Amino acid sequence: MTGLVKSTAIALRRIPSPGISFIVVNAVFGAAVLVVALQAPAAVRFPAVAALSFIPGAALVRLFLGDPGGHLRDPALRLPLSVLLGLLVWLGAALSLDAIAVPLAPRNLTLAVGAMGLVLITTDGVLRSTNPRRTTPRATWLAATRGAGIGVSVVVLGAAAYVASTMTVVPVERYTTLAFTDSKPYAGEVPLVAPARPVRLNWALRGFGCRPSPTLTSIRLAVDGVATDAVAVDTTEAPIGTISGAVTFTAPSRPGRYLVELTVVPTAPDGVALPAPGHVSTFVEVEK
After folding, report:
1. C-alpha to C-alpha distance for 34 and 190, rounded to whole angstroms
2. pLDDT tens digit sequence for 112-157
3. Which superkingdom, per the lineage (predicted)?
4. What φ, ψ does residue 121 adopt, rounded to 5°?
5. 127 and 260, same structural domain?
6. CA 249, 253, 254, 255 torsion: positive or negative?
7. pTM of the model
8. Same domain as 71, residue 203
């Protein structure tokens, strides 16, 4: 394990040009943000998450400890610190989102980590490029390449944020409600009707987040649990999303109290079934 850590550190130190490496790091970091934000397959997303953790952590290590040198060049110290501080960046991003009341959705957290990482990488690059000892043309070239790297990372991060925002599906709660509009059922009174005479009950169906169709919505009526086919239905569309209707049926010929149950099955204009509101019921008293 120690040999792997040392070999990784040696490989990192052999990157030929700090300016070019800055562009590469920003490009890799921006691509990682894009991959994770767009929910790429796990085989690609896993190393991208690792890059989102390690790259900002390594920038923090350089900001705290400086460039590798002396006893601070020990890879057994710097690499674990990079991983640990990278995880703290994720924690800081989550706490920041919670503080501003933004949902901790995967895309939101990824973009927050990307923004914090970009700040850390940019700060590290700017501090290294403004070293007063570097006043040669090579230092100017390094500063220019780091500026290009910053621009690349900003563009990639912005593109990831835009694409992620367009792909985010905002859930819309859809439901319907059904109620009688007659005064007697609302007041708890029992309508009194004559035997074998027409009975008319008015009702209203309201859609929230949806628009039921007056022509495609179906009605079922049952009297004392027995379905009634001889029903006249009138439906009209009131305000958008509301259907005002009425059912007319023949009262039973025998006197007594009967339970009338009305069921409305709402359907959208394109034929798609909408959430059903259930049924409403009322009693009807057939006089002697």
Report:
1. 64
2. 888 888 887 777 777 666 554 444 445 544 554 555 555 555 555 5
3. Bacteria
4. -65, -40
5. no
6. positive
7. 0.42
8. no
